[in-house]
Amino acid sequence: MTKRNSNLLERKKTKSKLLFDKKLKCGHCGMSMQAVHLKHEVKYYCITSKVNANSKCSSTEWIFENEITKVVFTALKKQIALADKAKKMLETKATQVAPSIEKLHDEITQLEQLIDKSRTDKMTLWEKYHTGGVTADVLQLEIEKSDLQIQKYEMQILELQEQIATFEMVSGRENVFVERFSKQVGLQELTRNIVDGLIFEVKIYSADNIEIIFNFVDEYEKIAPLLNTSKSKRKRKN
Fold first, then answer.
1. Comparing C-alpha atoms, which of 18, 71, 80 is closest to residue 212?
2. pTM given for the model
3. Which of 190, 196, 199, 203 could hold 27 in an S-S bridge, CB 3.0 to 4.6 Å?
């Protein structure tokens, strides 16, 4: 292997270890920030100004990875704390609505049993018709009545299922934001896996203006009213 090829492999190997690989974007142009590896640290800059003189980006403004890490870690811990708070509040709500959900499930079970009975009655009618027990007119009339009753039961089941969904939404069951972020309570160090799993991207406007966009924004919005927060607070700036 030539020295040049060896250097290329080493660069690829080093790049793959970047904490924010493919996550850092220039806040002005949206392009990925370029990494420069120093002896003991990594710094980033935007290359756009070198190819576009009219851009707002600056190729002379650098930001070090450890500075980004501090800002991201601080913001992330706040999100984790929110998720943990939400988890406890949602657990309380889930306990409160559990009896209502159970009652609705029982009603659905009863309706399903009535549907099964109606279908069994239809089969019995057909058997009676084939043995001469009922006329064709009576069969048709009873079948139509049975079909209408089944449709009524099915509509009632749909309504009950919608009520259950509403209760579950209020209780925040299976909220991905709460689930993923609350698992990181007590987090001591920012790792590549954490960045990949919880952060969508980090926009760098300057060393003093960093915007962090977290994953699961839609899921967060579902429980935001519970926390008295808004969507704008999901974008953290230092």
1. 71
2. 0.64
3. 203
